[in-house]
Design a protein that fits this description.
By secondary structure, the protein is mainly beta. It has three helices and 24 strands.
């Protein structure tokens, strides 16, 4: 057996072991969840050149590798950060919600997370989600003081309304049939609420072809859109801009090139029924820069103008991957 085959098999076995351990962790009680200790270590954008801070249109403001003695921390796939940049929410593909306060250093870079709590996402009957098929939360977006969460495998879209938000009981929304029919592990990863109130959904890979599918609507009525895929990049997150349009995060992985990510801009004029979306690419992150399986994206106004851009990686509960939270500054658009 060739060495690379042995390494690949070992990686798969270790990833499966990590996932099994996480899946076997008993859920905390509903409501406010339990306190979670998160340890963080700063990471450079370029480990070989720690002073580097430019990535396409972005300026790097620092990043963290997040760890916890609690094995439930991991698999973080959806991200939201409050407009003041202090309050963080995330959801895990094992059915957890995470809440924490973001701590900044003197220069405005990330310094850590504190006051973290972890709890189970509930179903409409107020029961913790059971089984991987039902727990696979992927997309997260704020709406009307509450949150929208999209799920894969058992494809669905739920609204967790205020005031309880992610700790409360959800209300199911309709999912258009062309997205409900997505392959089990390639459903709606990206969701956001636009400035005009419309919702945008994008499936990771609904067709297996050069386009994936999405939808524009209000949670009850939907209109079809599509999204052009580039190479092996797939959309994993959306973040709306107050002036219209949104940013989109894409990720890719191959054994040769490793884990990569791209950040793009979808101008407001693209977001119309029947459109084929094609983002303006703002930055691409690839080895040997610090990268992993990025699936979470959030925006907050930057004190100096423009935007704080947060990117969060899903470690798949694998000891070979990391939970990374990176922070960038994006100057005010438009970006052409």
């Amino acid at each position: 057996m060739k060495a690379w085959i042995r390494l690949a098999l070992a990686a798969l076995l270790m990833a499966a072991w990590g996932l099994a351990c996480a899946a076997g962790t008993p859920p905390p009680p509903p409501g406010e969840g339990r306190s979670l200790l998160i340890r963080s270590e700063t990471v450079a954008l370029d480990p070989a050149k720690p002073s580097r801070d430019r990535l396409g249109a972005l300026r790097y403001l620092g990043g963290l590798e997040l760890r916890s003695p609690d094995p439930a921390l991991g698999g973080l796939s959806g991200l939201w950060v409050s407009p003041d940049g202090r309050d963080l929410r995330a959801v895990s593909d094992q059915g957890w919600w995470l809440r924490a306060k973001v701590v900044y250093g003197p220069g405005g870079g990330l310094a850590g997370l504190e006051a973290a709590r972890l709890g189970p996402l509930l179903d409409p009957a107020a029961r913790p989600l059971q089984g991987k098929r039902n727990r696979d939360a992927e997309g997260l977006a704020a709406q009307d003081g509450g949150f929208l969460v999209s799920f894969e495998r058992n494809h669905r879209l739920w609204r967790y309304p205020a005031p309880e938000g992610l700790a409360g009981r959800p209300r199911p929304l309709s999912l258009p049939p062309w997205l409900a029919a997505s392959p089990k592990n390639s459903g709606v990863e990206a969701v956001t609420a636009l400035a005009d109130g419309r919702l945008v959904l994008l499936a990771e890979d609904a067709t297996g072809g050069p386009l994936t599918l999405g939808a524009l609507g209000d949670g009850a009525r939907w209109q079809k859109i599509s999204y052009r895929l580039h190479a092996d990049f797939k959309p994993t997150a959306l973040a709306a801009l107050p002036q219209g349009g949104c940013l989109v995060l894409e990720r890719a992985y191959s054994p040769v090139l490793g884990a990569r990510a791209r950040l793009g801009w979808l101008p407001p004029e693209q977001l119309r029924p029947g459109a084929e979306l094609a983002p303006v690419i703002l930055a691409e992150l690839s080895p040997p820069l610090t990268t992993d399986n990025f699936e979470g994206l959030a925006l907050a106004p930057a004190p100096e103008g423009g935007w704080r851009v947060f990117m969060l990686s899903d470690d798949n509960y694998s000891p070979l991957q990391r939970t990374l939270l990176l922070l960038f500054h994006l100057p005010a658009g438009p970006w052409r």
